[in-house]
Amino acid sequence: MSEKLNPSLVVGKPDDASALRRPRRCYDLWFGRHMIVLAWVMPVIAIFHPPQGLILPLCWMKLCTGVPCPGCGLLRSLSCTVRGSLADAVTYHPFGAVLMLLFAVAMGVSVMPGEVRQRIGDLMSSHGRLLGGAYVLFVSSFLAYGTVRALFFMVLGDGG
Q1: What is the DSSP letter of 112?
Q2: Stated pTM of the model
């Protein structure tokens, strides 16, 4: 006679369909398709982008309002990072070198065999709260930096 086990009583088994998707969420935040595409495209763009910027500004917000957006200077920072000029990179945008490091890790993960990526996903799932919190902290810090910089720029002007 086969008895059907109550899934909620089995240790390690999810009791609803949404729980089946939750473990991959952390992996997808850090190494999902969006990140893999950015990880391969942005360094290539940074290689060809001059570290001092282009003649024309790329930021529509700064062009229209005169105030920098949270990402202003990021491409120049990535360009300096690719060239090994970390001091200049931090001057243009402090998150550029960190993003380039994240891109390098994502590029590495993207070329690993599927079973290795699965093990990485499982490991990340076991630390989902920590890694999810780190992701939120990183994005919040990026936006806070941009907001504070924009406020200083509005108060002090272009020279600040």
Answers
A1: S
A2: 0.74
